[in-house]
Amino acid sequence: ELRTIWDDLGDDHAVNVVVLTGAGDFFSVGGDVKAMSERPGGDVLEEGEVHDPMISRRAVTRQLELDKPIIAAINGDAI
């Protein structure tokens, strides 16, 4: 979803600011490290799917090019 969300947010004129929030005690973009060691792509890619680094690069580029403020928050507190 993060691969396309930045384009959607940029195109939505009703959105003036983006607030990223986390739930629980931790706010992380981590993955299942054990699964990553057992097979490439870990819990992100389907079995046999090949990792394409350009997909991740495009997601980050789209986020950086978003012309709206992005605020990160944990439990309602901006960081």
Account of the 3D structure:
There is one protein chain. The longest helix has 13 residues. This protein is of the alpha+beta class and 79 residues long. Helix 1 runs parallel beside helix 3. It starts with a helix and ends with a strand. The radius of gyration is 15 Å and the shape is flat. Strand 2 and strand 3 form a beta hairpin. It has a three-stranded mixed β-sheet, with no helix packed on it.
Helix content class? 25-40%
Q: What order do the strands of the largest sheet run in, or round the barrel if closed?
A: 1-2-3
Count of beta strands: 3
Approximate shape: flat
N-to-C CA distance: 23 Å
Helix segment count? Answer: 3
Work out the radius of gyration: 15 Å
Low-confidence stretches: none
Structural class of the helices, strands and pairings?
Answer: alpha+beta
Estimate the mean pLDDT confidence.
76
The SSE order reads HEHHEE
Query: What profile does the largest beta sheet have?
Result: 3 strands, mixed
Taken as a percent bin, the fraction of beta residues is: 15-25%
What attributes does this structure have?
79 residues; alpha+beta; 3-stranded mixed beta sheet; 3 strands
Present the secondary structure layout.
Layout lengths: L1 H10 L6 E5 L10 H6 L14 H13 L4 E5 L2 E2 L1
Helix pairs in contact: 1-3
Brief synopsis:
The protein has helices spanning 2-11, 33-38, 53-65, and strands spanning 18-22, 70-74, 77-78. With 79 residues, the chain is of the alpha+beta class. The radius of gyration is 15 Å and the shape is flat.
